[in-house]
Design a protein that fits this description.
Its main location: mitochondrion. One of its GO terms (molecular function) is cardiolipin synthase (CMP-forming). The protein has helices at residues 2-57, 66-86, 90-113, 120-143, 149-173, 180-183, 197-219, 225-247; strands at residues 59-60, 188-189, 191-193, 252-254. The strands form two sheets. A two-stranded antiparallel ribbon has the order 1-2. Strands 3-4 form a two-stranded antiparallel ribbon. It is built from eight helices and four strands.
Length: 259
C-alpha cells in the first residue's frame, strides 16, 4: 500500500512538473512573439524614417524636358535606322540619320539656352543616345561589309566599358540605403558626367565616319581611299578617348546631400 501511495504521489508530482514546464515554455513563447513583433515594428519605423530622410537628402528633378525626349526619340530611331541599312534602303537610312543629327544639335541648344530644360539626367542620356545610335550604325554597316569588323569591335568594346562605368558611378553616388527601386529611379539626381575634350572630338569623328560611309552607296564612292583614311583616324580617336577617361580628373561629379 505504501509503495502504491508513493507511486501515485510521484506520478502526481511528475504531472505537476510537466504543467509547470509547459507554463514556463508558454510564457517564453509569448514573450518571444511579443519581442519579434516589437522588432518588426521597429524595423518598419526605421525604414520609413530612412525613406523620409532620403527624400529630403536626394535631389529630385524634372526629367520630362524637351532635350531628354529628343534623346529618347533618337534612341528609338536607331533600330529603324539599322533595319533600313541591312535592307539596303540607304536613301531612307541617310534621311533618318539626318533627322537624328538635327535632334542631337537641337537638344543641346535647348538645354544650354533654357535653364528649365537642363537636367542632370541629360548628362547621362545624351551620350547614351549617341552611343546607341553610333553602335547600331557601325554594326549594321559592318554587316553590309562597308566598315571593317576590327574597327567596329574596338568602338563597341570602348562604349560597353563606358556604359559599365556609368552604372558603377550611379551605384557609388547613391546614398545609403542603396535599393533597386532608388537605383533605377531616374528622378534621383546623384551624379553628373563630364566628357573629356578628346571624347567630344571622337564622337564627332565617329559620326562623320558613319555618315560618310552611309552616304557612299547613295553617291557612288564606296571603298574610296578617304574612307580608308577615316577608318584609321576613327580608331585613333576611339582608343585615345578611352585612355583619356582613365587619366583625366573630374570626368564625373557626385552631388552632395541637401542640408
Amino acid at each position: 500500500v505504501l509503495r502504491k501511495y508513493r507511486s501515485k504521489s510521484e506520478d502526481q508530482k511528475d504531472v505537476k512538473n510537466r504543467d509547470i514546464v509547459h507554463e514556463v515554455l508558454q510564457r517564453k513563447k509569448e514573450r518571444l512573439k511579443e519581442t519579434s513583433q516589437l522588432i518588426i515594428k521597429d524595423i518598419k519605423e526605421t525604414r520609413d524614417k530612412m525613406k523620409e530622410k532620403m527624400e529630403e537628402v536626394i535631389e529630385r528633378e524634372n526629367i520630362w524636358t524637351i532635350p531628354n525626349l529628343l534623346c529618347v526619340l533618337r534612341i528609338g530611331f536607331s533600330p529603324l535606322l539599322g533595319y533600313f541599312i541591312v535592307q539596303s534602303e540607304f536613301n531612307l537610312a541617310l534621311a533618318l540619320l539626318t533627322l537624328a543629327g538635327i535632334s542631337d544639335v537641337l537638344d543641346g541648344w535647348i538645354a544650354r539656352t533654357f535653364q528649365s530644360q537642363a537636367s542632370k539626367m541629360g548628362s547621362f542620356l545624351d551620350p547614351m543616345a549617341d552611343k546607341v545610335l553610333v553602335g547600331v550604325l557601325f554594326l549594321s554597316l559592318t554587316y553590309m561589309d562597308l566598315i571593317p569588323v576590327i574597327l567596329t569591335g574596338t568602338i563597341i568594346a570602348r562604349d560597353l566599358l563606358l556604359v559599365g562605368a556609368g552604372f558603377y558611378i550611379r551605384y557609388q553616388s547613391l546614398p545609403l540605403p542603396r535599393t533597386m527601386s532608388r537605383y533605377f529611379d531616374v528622378t534621383y539626381a546623384t551624379a553628373q558626367l563630364a566628357p573629356t575634350n578628346i571624347s567630344k572630338v571622337n564622337t564627332a569623328v565617329q559620326l562623320l565616319m558613319v555618315a560618310s560611309t552611309l552616304a557612299a552607296p547613295v553617291f557612288n564612292y564606296v571603298d574610296h581611299s578617304l574612307l580608308h583614311m577615316l577608318w584609321y583616324i576613327t580608331a585613333g580617336t576611339t582608343i585615345t578617348s578611352a585612355v583619356s577617361y582613365l587619366v583625366t580628373k573630374d570626368t564625373y561629379k557626385f552631388f552632395k546631400p541637401n542640408k
